[in-house]
Amino acid sequence: MTPDPPIVDPELLTAVAQGTTHDPHALLGPHLLAPQDGAFAVVRALRPLADEVVIVVTRPDGPPTEHTARHEAAGVWSVVVPVGADDDGTRHAPDYRVRSRYGDESTTTDDPYRFLPSLGEMDLHLIGEGRHETLWQVLGANRQVYPGSGGDITGTSFAVWAPNARGVRLVGDHNRWTPVHPMRSLGSSGVWEIFVPDVGVGTRYKYEVCGPDGVWRAKADPVAKASETPPATASVVTHSEHVWADEEWMSRRASSEPHGGPISVYEVHLASWRPGLGYRELAEELTDYVTEQGFTHVELMPVAEHPFGGSWGYQVTGYYAPTARLGSPDDFRYLVDRLHQAGIGVILDWVPAHFPRDEFALARFDGTSLYEHADPRRGEQPDWGTLVFDFGRREVRNFLVANATYWFEEFHADGLRVDAVASMLYLDYSREEGGWASNVHGGRENLEAISFLQEANATAYRRSPGVMMIAEESTAFPGVTRPTDSGGLGFGLKWNMGWMNDSLRYVAKDPMYRSHHHGELTFSLVYAFSEQYVLPISHDEVVHGKGSLLHKMPGDRWQQLAGVRAFLTYQWTHPGKQLLFMGSEFAQEAEWNEGRGLDWWHLDDPGHTGVQRAVRDLNALYRATPALWERDFDGSGFEWIEADDAARNVLAYARRAADGTAVVVVVNFAGVPHEGYRIGLPDGGTWVEAFGSDALEYGGSGVVNTGELTAEDVPWHGRQHSVALRVPPMGGLVLVRR
Predict the structure, then answer these.
(1) Which CATH superfamily is domain 633-737 in?
(2) Residue 473 is among the residues annotated as catalytic for this protein
(3) Which site in 5, 94, 106, 236 is 20 to 30 Å from 300, CA atoms measured?
(4) Does domain 10-114 correspond to CATH entry 2.60.40.10?
(5) Beta-carbon neighbour count of residue 645 at 10 Å?
(6) CATH code, residues 248-627
(7) Of the residues 448, 472, 502, 694, which is catalytic?
(8) Beta partners for 665?
(9) Catalytic residue at 556?
(10) Which position has the higher pLDDT, 149 or 94?
(11) C-alpha distance from residue 419 to each of 182, 252, 355, 474 (Å)
(12) Given this structure, which CATH class describes domain 121-236?
């Protein structure tokens, strides 16, 4: 005889139905009755709006059996069903489906509450310790396969960290956005989990999180791997089917020293490079263009999902999801893959310093200050109106460190440029007196953020050999590119903001006044080897009224174009790697605007085409000339020839490769040429002009040095040999020894 279902406290039924219990699986799903009651199990299902619920038990050795459930309370239905048993009496929970009737419509679905958790004990331990380096594999939405009597059962496991929540419910397309899937809390980990069979790619979902205040908040998944296209805000289930074809690149990367080679970076805002192109179209057009121009890397402004396009991606709400504006995550993988196959590295902008206040995202995620620091003096960023991560919280650090790893391992990124590092390092950054709290030692350094950066860098370099971690850091904080085991922050490269500010301030002045500011050009060599630097002319320098690189130059249009060519010659030959924002390579006239594309029509003008050609040739010379990159971080690879000719606005210097091979650079920032300008040479013999920015093919006036230049035995600039040159107006030249 079949026993009746055990009696359940109505308050518990209500709590389960409302989602305010930490363990709905303890009531819902199959539960074996006591042995003395026989080989039976009670099955409970939550179907609040159903008119009838039938449990259909499948058996490997016979047809399915149907068992009509009775409504207990609050939408919970229950029925006792027979179960199978082994010869030794071991009973097994039934394999069943739930058929629900709503008026004249019936649906049959599998039951999420009959499955074990998708996270193991080790996962939960590592999450609690803040050391789960592949966090995305267990949190968020992940494909899961369980064995069943009728074959494997495929679906999606959902897991989210919300330690202070009173309850968490999963809503989405799969349940018509109704709160019928309360999740279970996995002990003290703060993780809530549920596996939903038959949920697959493309399903939209959110978590409804009940905070300690009893308020339910609809939240996107912090570890979602895909999202809806903004302004929609739901998370989306995804699973990669991309087959990588960049094995040669990845193998070479893993065995290389990432910072020592030629690095010439083209910075791109994907949505406005050529508007209307998605990831797959960009994979063809951007790859072809960057290859033709000779850059070694692209740096992509943030591709992680963000609600407001005008933030350029620097206010991230989906740290694990490439923006859906341009395609799917696999479409983005395809873009990276194509760039790699063409021999081009991919650097991504990464924003761990702060996040926006949007209610659907990380802010007060479980009704408390969870991801953000609870003290507004540390948890709010006044400059950007955003919130600051609580870097001292283990789980938050884990979220960010694993995120860096995620982009390297899942998307084959070759580097991360870490945004706004200075804002993380200092507790008083952009804060008024009394508006910040000191550290435990009474200082202004954010010790937790420093520790986080060290951990992120060390983890990235350990797990993904050959990648680069790059700091956008605007202060003199010591040891940014020093290894962590020597007390440094552990970055591989640092943006040289001092060089950028000084050099742009200099070139913005009329040539007749530049002699009084000559030190702004030479000062960078005082500290050029104190860190491993990148010289950036980035998006930040061509917006908000600063004017384009072209418009920073004084004079008429010819002088402006010549000034751009001279400046880029100086940049490409100065110690350090270099970065140039899109459009600057052809001297775009207008400021960059994310709402419109680049002004490609400039390339109908020979003057702008000449700048583009000059950049292409500079890249070719740079990549082929180890003296221009091999000793970027070693003072022995640079020597001044003429640093003090302020009156004529001239700089001359030599760069040396590891084998001693030298190149000589002369840059004239005056508006007039200097004929017969004598410079000392580091070596005798025959020299040739390998590049001259004033060449006719670049739109210049043709003041170049043709043919062979024989070093004369005329001591000059403290050297035994010298040569008299034609130095062009607003131009630069590079000499190599033949």
Answers:
(1) Golgi alpha-mannosidase II (2.60.40.1180)
(2) no
(3) 236
(4) yes
(5) 18
(6) 3.20.20.80
(7) 472
(8) 653, 734
(9) no
(10) 94
(11) 38, 27, 12, 11
(12) mainly beta
